[in-house]
Amino acid sequence: MTEEVIAIGSTQNPVSGSNPQPAVKKKRSLPGTPDPEAEVIALSPKTLMATNRFLCEICGKGFQRDQNLQLHRRGHNLPWKLKQRSSKEVRKRVYVCPEKSCVHHHPSRALGDLTGIKKHFCRKHGEKKWKCEKCSKRYAVQSDWKAHSKTCGTREYKCDCGTIFSRRDSFITHRAFCDALAEETARVNAGSHMKNHAGHMNYQFSLGPNMGHHFSSIFKPISSNPQNIDPTTRGLSLWNMSQQPPQSQETICKNLQEMHQMGISVSSGGAIYSCTDPLVNPCSSNPHSPSTTYQLNWDFAKNLNSSNGAANDQLSCNSLPLSNINVKDMGNHQLSGSVSSLFSTQQQSHQQTSAANMSATALLQKAAQIGATTTDPSLLGNFGLKCTENPIQNPVTTGLGSDVLALNHLQMYPSMRHHIQNQENIREGETRDFLGVGIQSICHPSSINGWI
Amino acid sequence: MQGINRRHPQDSSITGLPSPDSGENSDGKWASRLLRECATAMSEKDSSKIHHLLWMLNELASPYGDCDQKLAFYFLQALFCKATDSGQRCYKTLISVAQKSHSFDSIRKLILKFQEVSPWTTFGHVASNGAILEALEGEKKLHIIDISNTLCTQWPTLLEALATRNDETPHLKLTVVVTTSIVESVMNEITPRMEKFARLMGVPFEFRVMSGLNFLGELTKDSLGVQEDEAIAVNCIGAFRRVDVEERRAFFQMIQSLRPKVVTVVEEEADLSSSRNDFIKCFDECLRFYTIYFDMLEQSFAPTSNERLMLERECSRSIVSVLACDDEIDHGDSERRERGNQWSDKLREAFIPVGYSDDVVDDIKALLKRYRTGWSLVLPAAGGDDLGINLTWKEEPVVWASVWKP
Question: 0.90 cut: is pTM over it?
Fold first, then answer.
């Protein structure tokens, strides 16, 4: 691209040194490797930073190029003249960066077009005057800032585990802790696929300082600009692809090849993005799903629903401090007596009524009612409040022997039982879970919760 | 969610105490009133009043109710321990409960969820990372000494920034200091993840965990292994309050001896140390702080959130420690917070305060915009001594962040 506009109607005069066959797609090489025959131009920083220096005398509007100003002047019915391309052959011009420390300062790394060198200089060495309101990211080039502002906040970032984020920072933090971060598989796959796509991939899986730039594309949002089929995007797909279990390598390799051939952007929501690795621990498949491995699910749900009913029940299992420590220490029998009386059996009736509000949890609770004869409220209270208090040691235990009750609870509430197993507090060997399913899937966040 | 019912045994005529659902209580803030009365009764050693109030609180308290009920529950626990002189034992029990109930998965989920819904911790992260990046700009070998309670969730964004912003990515060594055994086991899971992530980011990275300390006060310069050619940043998030009150000045001196280029400090705004010999004052301040905290949690999480419940439960140790544990020796970490200006006074003996740059302030403002309303940033008053900034929740300052250099 040269500064002069080709006059309308004239034939294009092929410039020596430029690509004679526009139909062939030029392989994109490292920026700043100019044609050795080209003329090297060194513009001053002032010139490079100047924008809109061609001003319309009527309305004052500024233009970056004289040609654009001329075309604008037509609108004011002013005389205009487009410069003609000179008839003799013009050497292609390349531009160097005036900044001495810059890699593009040397003529051998000059950039091929004026707009390019201008933007480069502003971006790298210029003052970042333009700032995004939403995320406070700074830009030196106004068009960059405009382009960013359009999409800022509208992007979505998707982790390999399937979770979607609207915020980049929480996405990054999640990514670092996510179990889907499987680099080892990535390395293996990267090695084998490199050979297939040697032509397009100048992306290497080695760990040099330049990798940061490539890998930052990992955090490119899903809806990134489809025109960016550059090595980083392809690298992104390769990296993501490598999250898949080995058996799907073939399909993915095919997908990749297809995409290259069709020039489809990886980010168009293709198969690679939507697959989640079934082998991966579901660290957080849904940012809103509460943990089911935490034994309190049941208890919390129970109390939540009881709070919808009469307020009575909320008050009944709350004697944590008193049940924990020997009540007799209080020296006031009124208190110890009332502690026991606090443990009413009203909880149970509420469990029954609230079952309709929940799905899987409701089933579990219903089973609880069928299974248990009397419920030891202090046991419930303890489970609810202390999480790990061994119910057997509870001095205020009433009702059935705590062994049986513990057993019932172990059977009925797999999530709780899972927790108790962790503490090695299991009294019996009853590890068969209620629904006849393995612990892993029970503890899968999406399988139990009826209430979110 | 009014959990107060009407079926209280009516002893009010005997003791002269009003029952909770009397007319004057229509604003619903019965918990703070009752709790304060109970604390007063304790300081006056009015035995029957203590018993009565404890009993009433027990009737009304619940960890599953509204904020009043929750506050009543957790503070009742501490008051009970104080009355029965069982604070130490209760604290130890709470520690062992927490150890058993937490796994890496649950803690990870907890803290990430908290950071998603509330800027309580991310505020300090963004401020500190910004200050660290600016202070260490151009350095080739970075060594960050991290003494925090946020389990390395601060570092992924810093790693990303190192990888993408600078032309040449420096080498980063990260030394993480942990004391409580809960965190030690979690660090075993975090280590490989941090290393992997840094590899992916393309940041040359070395990660070390320093555990085995009983108290933060035991930390020494030698054990940290700082080298001459490293540019050092010391990052302290919720760290200073864990140092024994008497040892704090010495701790700052130790940090100074590391010759850091920058020290980033983040603490919660509450004064639980200057009043530690005055039970009522301490109680009031503790209640004030946790009232705000619980309100913030309730507003930030979904009503059925398990994570919120866990966070509330995490407070119980702190509350028991401050109110019922009277600086006993084998206590583990202290929890006596101080306000920003108090920390500033002490820090100024060893360091010079540094203000946050406009860019970092903009980043923080942008961060707060991403959360629900209620949060804001308060910049230091012009001409004031304290250059730290405050995160406020409903106009109340809750977190203080500041930067220091030698």
Answer: no
